[in-house]
Known about the structure:
It is built from 15 helices and 2 strands. The protein is 73% helix and 1% strand. A two-stranded antiparallel ribbon has the order 1-2. The chain is mostly helical. It is globular and about 70 Å long.
Amino acid sequence: MSALTTFFDTDRRVLALAIARMADALGNSFLVIVLPLYVASGIVSGDAFGLSEPMIAGLVLAVFGIASSIAQPFAGRLSDLAGKRRVFVVGGLLVFMASNLGFIWAENYTLLFALRIIQGTAAAFTITASIALVNEVSRMDSRGGNMGVYNSFRLVGFGAGPLLASLIIEGGPYTVPGTEGSVTGFEVTFFIAALAAFVSIVLVLSIVEDPKNPETADRRFNLAILDRSGRNTLDPIFALGVSTMVMAACVAMLSTLEPQVNDRLDQSPILFAIEFVALILTLALVQPFVGRLTDRYGRKAFVVYGLIALVPTTLVQGFVVTPGQMIVARALQGLAGACVFAPALALGGDLADSGASGTQLSVLTVSFGLGIAAGQILAGSVVEYGFFVPFLVGALLALVGATIVHSEVVEQRRPMTAPT
């Protein structure tokens, strides 16, 4: 039996998608570090729309998430109607690869924004189709573990990207072997990001196939805020989306507060990076184990108790006084977050209508992106009232999220039929 089929008993197609998503996330996270430096380097010129370079850099990063969030429900719907997933995953990766190379020639702000919008739209197709495919090739008794493995690999790629990109930028320019020419560190990172997308494409084409008997989507746009059955107030998948957004907001607040954290704890930026990575590392390590546990013991309780655990682990960050305490708090917050994200995705997959998982699971993927942005904005807007205030608000939101999931989500058990 191959390693692909034995890692956490994960379906080889899921593992291939997870590794492909890791490579793609690695290339995408390169740009988080590289693009602000690229804007400030003087290589990009032209009309700056009357905005400062830092504002341009922030917008260049943010427009990706905005475009992706807007496009994801429609991308998911298209893959549902087509009854195919792999072509959307590969298509999105191809566009992403080409746009990464396009940055090499992006010498004005308009082209920079255009490329980021294209990338965000392409990512919407890749994200929704890959999550739907993981859902559809999973049995009910393995969906939690598969979602955990998929998310863990993605986080590993996202966490490693900024560090590698920083090293590449600092090491440039580089001599081209066999020639007297050279390339900048920026050009190397753009090329590696494109190469990572290419590796993802090869993996998906080589190993991943659509289910032989795909579920058929009806013609309704299967998104709802209110529960259509009349049993509860909110649609259960929307309620899970709320919980995902709250979790993402709680873990993202710290990134906005780097100057305040470093000043309060009298620490260097390196220690802040360690504190930030402590959460990502915990999430990556714990999610497969949590996912497998939800396959055996149910998912809703993990989501509820994970949100409850976010209350103290978020709040305590507003009162720590040493870097060591912050590292421990972030690791514990990562453990709580691991009990929310993958189980919520798996439970959403359990509850999704037949053939509509691309559309309905986009609620959770969009919620995660919006939660990251909301947490960053929230932290920056209320920290002036006291260092602990953002963390207090986040803790209260986590408590509200736990209440919503407890009251609005009914965990259903369906027959465990193995997909083909």
